[in-house]
Give the backbone structure.
Amino acid sequence: MALAGALLALGCSLAGAGTAGAAGAGSAPSGAGTAQGAANRVLCYQAHVAGVGWESGYSCNGVTSGTTGEGRAVEALRFITAGMSGLCARAHVSTIGWQSWVCVDDSETLEIGTTGQSLPIEAVEFQTQGGSVAANAHLSGYGWQGWVAGGRITVGTTGANRSIEAIMVTP
């Protein structure tokens, strides 16, 4: 759990710290993060928001990253994990389509999307190396999509021209 402590020291917000979720976002699925060893699993993420840039810190384990009600798209995302045996992710970016999969081991930084191109992320696909992951995305013109959980999941849309404005992810 040393990495989790280090992430907290870097300004990560954990769901257990009382800042989890967002209005209308709902709770993570009951099966998410409840497997044996889940207490030692940490998944932190940071959004690059249109007109803002990288958020000042990481959000972890179900805390909202990005914005709602401001019309600002998430353009890139960074992830770092502990106790998950790694993570794979890819983004569906406006006008580009699906990017290649990026996979990292625990404590390594995974980055998807683009910066400096004003191209919103429209969907994100996750695959875990062990266990499951759950996510919920806030979409432009729609709101919170609802939680999805599993070993390989997708949040957001493709072909609907709806950018992700905020995201919550939990191991």
Remarks:
- The chain has a mean pLDDT of 87.
- Residues 76 and 109 are 13 Å apart (CA to CA).
